[in-house]
């Protein structure tokens, strides 16, 4: 298999740009709102992302807050079945497990904006 040259990348980029313009025209005509037009929006976003026009925002992380809240909660909670000590299942998790194998959800995620 031969390596792609810079010329082939330019050809690919031109092809993708032409395809993006065609999809944009279809969106302008309202075809993406038709019952079978979901693929138009999906392809438009995929191509725009590959050309670098759309950037995905980095996903937020609040593992530290969850871990600190879980350490407090695990210290005060005990197993209902055997009375044993609970440990957090993994970092960032809101679940705990006992030595006997019983699993518990110690924290709930609050929904924002509602």
Ends apart, CA distance between termini: 53 Å
Largest sheet: 3 strands, antiparallel
How many strands appear in the DSSP assignment?
A: 3
Count of the separate structural domains: 2
Polypeptide structure, described:
The chain is mainly alpha-helical. The chain has 2 domains: 6-51; 63-105, no CATH class. 45% of the residues lie in helices and 9% in strands. It has 3 helices and 3 strands, in the order αααβββ. α1 (6-28) runs antiparallel to α2 (38-51). The longest helix is centred in the first third of the chain and has 23 residues, at 6-28.
Task: Record keyword descriptors for this entry.
45% helix, 114 residues, 9% strand, 3 helices
Secondary-structure blueprint of this entry?
Layout: H1 6-28, H2 38-51, H3 63-76, E1 86-88, E2 95-98, E3 103-105
Antiparallel strand pairs: 1-2, 2-3
Helix pairs in contact: 1-2
Summarize the structure.
The chain has 114 residues and is mainly alpha-helical. Helices cover 45% and strands 9% of the residues.
């Amino acid at each position: 298999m031969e390596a792609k040259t810079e010329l082939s990348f330019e050809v690919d980029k031109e092809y993708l740009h032409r395809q993006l313009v065609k999809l944009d025209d279809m969106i302008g005509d309202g075809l993406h709102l038709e019952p079978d037009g979901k693929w138009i929006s999906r392809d438009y976003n995929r191509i725009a992302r590959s050309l670098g026009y759309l950037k995905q925002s980095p996903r937020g992380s609040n593992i530290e807050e969850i871990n600190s809240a879980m350490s407090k909660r695990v210290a005060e909670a005990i197993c209902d079945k055997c009375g044993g000590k609970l440990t957090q299942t993994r970092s960032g998790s809101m679940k705990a497990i006992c030595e006997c194998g019983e699993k518990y959800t110690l924290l709930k995620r609050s929904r924002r904006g509602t």
